[in-house]
Amino acid sequence: MNRLTVDPIACRAHGLCADILPELITVDEWGYPVVRGGTVPEPLLAEARRAAAACPALALRLRKSR
Known about the structure:
The chain is α+β, with helices and mostly antiparallel strands. The protein has helices spanning 16-20, 45-54; strands spanning 2-6, 25-27, 33-35, 60-64. It has a two-stranded antiparallel sheet with strand order 1-4. A two-stranded antiparallel sheet has the order 2-3. The N and C termini lie close together (7 Å).
């Protein structure tokens, strides 16, 4: 299982992650990402990797959960 996490201190609210992965990420009223759900479904794994890689602040991380 894989899980998306956001480092709220590192995040600069660019919003690229929500543009790339709107199925799992929305933005709040200040533009900061809110990750929906716990784990990333297999069909969205490639897009989750792409969203994490595109984060200019390196605040979005895709991690293997146990």
